[in-house]
Design brief:
By secondary structure, the protein is an alpha+beta fold. The chain is built from four helices and four strands. The strands form two sheets. It has a two-stranded antiparallel ribbon with strand order 1-2. Strands 3-4 form a two-stranded antiparallel ribbon. Helix 1 crosses helix 3, helix 2 packs parallel to helix 4 (99-108) and helix 3 (86-95) packs across helix 4 (99-108).
Amino acid sequence: MKKILLVLLFFSSVVCAKAQPESVLVLNTITDKIEIQKNANQIRSIASITKLMTVMVALDRDKNLNRQLQLNTKIHSRLPKQKYTRAQLLEAMLINTDNAAAETIAEDYFGGRE
């Protein structure tokens, strides 16, 4: 699970780096080397921490990324209304910050969103 989360966070950071963010820091925890750094010492608010926590809880519950889920249609999404694998939803949630993907993952949790 840690490897999956690390890969998702890395790709998310790379996308952010290409979009020219004000600050970014990507640390390779295996080599303990900073891969990307820009204004890393500036204090900023944490972006999308709720989505990161949703990913961690969802992966703790079920590591099967191939299971398909119907996209939540109650919330606006750039994704077409269809079924997606959990991996596709996690990617859409973390990289594209798609709220419908986040809601779909949250609703899939035992007991629902709450």
